[in-house]
Write a structure and sequence with these properties.
- The chain is α/β, with parallel strands linked by helices and 290 residues long.
- It has 8 helices and 11 strands.
- Helix 5 links the parallel strand 6 and strand 7.
Length: 290
Amino acid sequence: MEPLSSDGIHERRTDMTAGVFMDSADSFLGRRVIADLIDAAEERGIHLVFFFGGSFDGDGVGGPLTWAYSMPSPETIDALIILPHSVSPYNPRKTAETILSQFPSIPAYSFLADLPNRFSVSVNEEPAIEELARHLVRDHGYSKFAVMSGDSGPESLSRARRNSLERALAANGVELRSDLSYSVSPDTGGGRIAAARILRSENADPDVIVCMNDELAIGATREFLDNGISVPEDIAIVGFDDVEENAMLPNPATTIAYPLGHMAAELMARIASDHDGHTSYKADRITHDA
C-alpha cells in the first residue's frame, strides 16, 4: 500500500533509476537474470540501466570493455546493482569493491554473491550439492565422476562448486579424479569441446559428468547426442542454474536450481524501500538455499 499524504491522498513514490553491472547479455543465465530483474524492477517503478562491461581476466586486469563500469553518474543513477561473479569470475569480491569504490555516494547492492560491506542477495548451494551427490551415488550407483568447469580462480564460482562437490562425494565414499577434470570456456562451445575430449580418450569413461553451469551441460549433451551417445542412458549429465534452454534438450538435464525471480523481487523491494526512506541502507545479507 502506498503511503498517505496529509490530505489522505495516496502519494506515488518518485521513480528512481538503478544501474546494473554485469559482463554481457550473451549467456543463458545472463539473459534469465536480466529478464527477472526487469520484471521485478517494473513492479517497483524502478528504471534499470545495464552497463555491460565484459569480465575481468584471472590476473585482475580489465578487458577492453570494462570502461563501461566507470560510466554511472550520481546525478542520474540512484542505486547500483553488481553481479560479482559476472564482472570478475576469478576475483569477484575484490574486483566488485574496486568498481564500486568509484561511486561512494551511490548505494550499492550485490546480487547472487555476498559482498561483506554491501546489501547482498545470494544463494547457498551446499545443501543441494550434498543431496545431488547422495542421489547420484546412493540411488544410481555412480562412482566415476567427471567435472566440466570454466573459470577456476580461488574465489570463482566454479571453484566453490567443485569444492562443495568434492566434499559431498567424499561423504559418500567417492573421490574426484584429477584426470577427469576439464577446464574449458563456460559456454555450450566449451561443453562440446570437453565432451569431444572424453569421446577421443580411451581411459575417460565416466558414469556421470557434473557441469558447473547448464551451458556446459547443454553443450556436452548435444555433442554426445550428435555422436550417438544417449543421455542419460549411456552417460548422465547434471548442471547448475536451471536455465530455460535446458528444456529444449530431448531429455532435460538434472540441474541445481534457485528462486531467481523471487530473489530479484527481494532485491528490488529493498532498493525501493531504502530509496523511499522506509529502511536505511546497510550491509544486510539474504541467502536462499538452492
